[in-house]
Amino acid sequence: MKFTKHPIFIATIMAVSFTACTDDDDATTDVQLEVPTNYNFTRNGESTVNFSGQTTRILMADELNDRLLDFSIDDELLLNQFSNENDPFSSSDLNDSDKSIKSKVAASADYFSTNLTLSATIKNTLESWLSKQANEIFPFQDNSAQAGEAGQLADGDNVRYVNAQGLEFNQLFTKSLIGALMVDQTLNNYLSPAVLDEGQNREENDSDILAEGKTYTTMEHKWDEAYGYLYGTSENPANPNDKIGEADDYLNKYIGRVENDEDFSGIAERIFNAFKTGRAAIVAKDYDIRDEQANIIQQEISNIIGIRAVYYLEQAKSGIATENWGTAFHDLSEAYGFIYSLQFTKNPATNQPYFNAAEVDDLLTDLMDDGEDGLWDVSVETLSTISEIIAAEFDFTIEQAGS
Amino acid sequence: MKKIAFLLIGFILLNSCESDSTDTPQSDTFDRTELLINWADNIIIPYYQNVDVALSQLRTEAEDFTADPSINSLNNVRESWKAAYLIWQRTAMFEIGPAENNDLRLNLNTYPVNATTIEANINNQNVNLTLPSNRTAKGFGTIDYLLYNETTEDDIIAQFSTEDGSALRSAYLMQVIDDMQTLINLVKEQWQNSYRDEFVGNSGSSATASVDRFVNDYIFYYEKFLRAGKMGIPLGVFSGNKEPQTLEAFYEGTLAKELFLEGLDATRDFFNGEHVNETTSGESLYSYLQELNELKDGANLGDLINDQFDLAFTKVQELDTFKAEIEDNDVPNDMLGAYEEVQRLVPLFKVDMVSAMSINIDFVDADGD
Fold it and tell me: What are the boundaries of the signal sequence (chain A) (predicted)?
């Protein structure tokens, strides 16, 4: 995987429909993919695209994020929003939904179907941060934070609220949820052959047998559900890139942020094109092309998590040098969440995360253990060390990611 | 997104036009120590002293007003607030050393202010104004709110005399002024007692030298606080939506243009090394450019900058009040036109001037969150 500085060139390549051979026995006919300009797919004049469940979960997560700095509430509401219990949301549509954020956290087929202990640990960790936000930070709203004491810190004209070790639990939670919900479900569940080809999915897709009462085959729907975790709250979900980054507080936002770094421009287009091409391959019943496109998405989304982890580690250095603690700790709290999210990435060459849970724990321990007051004591050298360890596993450099 | 796109475009444009002066660079023999001495002794410290005096006057008038609220005492405290606010515009660019360490600019003049927080603070009594979350509830903008949040003078007077909580309101006005005086005193005294020598002594040319750092602070102020904060954001240049409620001195309603012009004049005077008395001058960014004999397209860069300052000043001066320009015009074309002239100074500073002086720009457009 190389990062190119010529996104138009790439886009042009991706935009042309291409041909490939099918791999079944009578593979003599070329399959012509019809890759649309926008993410529109129809059957008999009706749309076959649906990802309403993903839209619902992103909306739940956005509302939860808004509540994380509502000092008038306690942790019960935050935990209820996480698990959608006791009508915790402002909209009845969300309250009445049978879906919740929690049920899909660390819940992918590839990583967690036989690793329920780790799944439970991750859910507990995210819940503990919600409780700590309410119990370790809210009570100290009007305290000036200092080493060993929770309270508020200035970050330019923003105010940051940290615990005694300098952590913003709202940032830990939201940036970790990007990995634990959006990335895990997309890369390791809905784009995984284990899900796409589950049961009779291939046979049904090959024979155009639709899901009961639906306009789509089950395989088509699984692919669209992956799409929904990126673009489900976009103003125009079929053509999301003209407002990429504006749709939510989660994965969409950071696709936009990385796209706006000139070192990585073109990444949003590559992801979108891979989604369209892969979906067109399902329609054409070409599962090799489908999986190639899934691998592109897995690679690029994983890059986004790695890039942002390194970006915030590097950005924090100037805040530490000038003792702008609020600025530095905000960066490092975001870095903490993106590092946590690394365990949900997928390297298509190995089908494993770029860093597993134990490795992520080691990195986070390094970040927090330079002294007894956590981020108040962290050294620039420690940040460099962690950046180097992360960048070494990816194809980007610290310089590209760090600014 | 529009903001980011705008910044990106700006970034690309700036980077794509390297200094196109055709002369070969002169060796830089300019005496940076003399420049720093002029800045510190004839400009920065005297202006801090002036703000300090103006705040003392404001305090006196506020004491009189809260002791005996009347049309007369209200007008006096308003006038002294305006006078102090105008002088502050001459110091806002000096965010280095003790001012930077104390976040002076954000502590004294964060706007728009938060009326809800202000009213809550009044009722809570003796709140901690050093908390970052109170920056939108203190400083010049909060005094603007306290003295102008009702249309009529009688209604303001009633808030400080007959209405419930008037004593708390009076106490809060004094607490806000106290906070401003404390900060200005702190910064002024640190300049006088220790930082002046450190500033002047650090006369080299490197990323951490005083001239390099201060030129960065100066351009940063011009671009973000003067150009964007006082004009661009209210105009909706970045968001696409007009935001008159973000104007400086919003409640007073007419002062924003004067405050901008004072700030623009202050950056022009500073560029030319004009002393606090505005009649004499010393070594400056202008004289530095003259010494380097820096040309741009065959013209003298220092003179180009001064001409552009004059054009921008005139264009803004010709406008109605900022509030009227923004609210009374669907598309505020005149003010946008004036903004463009203000904007044209940015590349002259940020590309041509710093390139001539071999100064690196050390701030970037952070992408937020």
Answer: 1-22
